[in-house]
């Protein structure tokens, strides 16, 4: 079976500020290079495409320097205004190659473990859609805009979604095309697009630490930790 990967890196990182976070380094290496490296470690993966904002093509080239001789990494594709649009652009670019499976990953999740990706791929033998996730461990408070607690919500059965998320390629492409055609542009992950299209979706427990770099504080904390470890 052929497996392709789309790494979405077309965001502008407004919450972290400055140069889009995927092009910034934590420890000695760019966040994007770390995210790509986890997939490159798996021989089962045959093709990898990044979706980028063409305004940052030079930063992209710099970030992948040293990885560009992996022949599985193809030329980047231009993204869109939303994450959902960027994923669809990646899917359309892969369509001529018609892979069996596609994994979609946020460039901003540089700590994903190859063993978790392998677990996700294994699960896709039995289901058309699956995502890495972890059970919610915190007690959940529902609060109003002023921070006043309205109630406490049951957390059993709740999972926090991560990436990568994996799909039978043809099924996800069809779901994304239909969502776009029907003007649905509000999906924040691809599993939600698959759910909307009626596909059965499974959660797969990931490894600890697969956090998404969102704020400058996340980036700085990751940088400090890696500088200690890589000293
Ligand atoms: N992404 C994308 N295209 C977009 C928006 C987001 O490819 N139009 C990607 C980001 O590059 C990131 C992932 O989707 O790897 C998750 O998005 P997020 O963490 O929200 O990153 P940004 O959108 O860049 O950050 P922000 O929301 O703070 O602007
Ligand atoms: Mg965003």
TrEMBL record:
The record marks 155, 212 as: Positions MEP for the nucleophilic attack. It catalyses: 4-CDP-2-C-methyl-D-erythritol 2-phosphate = 2-C-methyl-D-erythritol 2,4-cyclic diphosphate + CMP; 2-C-methyl-D-erythritol 4-phosphate + CTP + H(+) = 4-CDP-2-C-methyl-D-erythritol + diphosphate. The keyword Metal-binding applies. In the N-terminal section; belongs to the IspD/TarI cytidylyltransferase family. IspD subfamily. Belongs to the IspD/TarI cytidylyltransferase family. IspD subfamily. Keywords: Isoprene biosynthesis, Lyase, Metal-binding, Multifunctional enzyme, Nucleotidyltransferase, Transferase. GO terms for molecular function: 2-C-methyl-D-erythritol 2,4-cyclodiphosphate synthase activity; 2-C-methyl-D-erythritol 4-phosphate cytidylyltransferase activity; metal ion binding. Pathway: Isoprenoid biosynthesis; isopentenyl diphosphate biosynthesis via DXP pathway; isopentenyl diphosphate from 1-deoxy-D-xylulose 5-phosphate: step 4/6; Isoprenoid biosynthesis; isopentenyl diphosphate biosynthesis via DXP pathway; isopentenyl diphosphate from 1-deoxy-D-xylulose 5-phosphate: step 2/6. Its cofactor is a divalent metal cation. The gene is ispDF. Its EC number is 2.7.7.60, 4.6.1.12. The record marks 15, 21 as: Transition state stabilizer. Bifunctional enzyme that catalyzes the formation of 4-diphosphocytidyl-2-C-methyl-D-erythritol from CTP and 2-C-methyl-D-erythritol 4-phosphate (MEP) (IspD), and catalyzes the conversion of 4-diphosphocytidyl-2-C-methyl-D-erythritol 2-phosphate (CDP-ME2P) to 2-C-methyl-D-erythritol 2,4-cyclodiphosphate (ME-CPP) with a corresponding release of cytidine 5-monophosphate (CMP) (IspF). It comes from Prosthecodimorpha hirschii. One of its GO terms (biological process) is terpenoid biosynthetic process. This is Bifunctional enzyme IspD/IspF. Residues 1-231 are annotated as: 2-C-methyl-D-erythritol 4-phosphate cytidylyltransferase. The lineage of its organism: Bacteria, Pseudomonadati, Pseudomonadota, Alphaproteobacteria, Hyphomicrobiales.
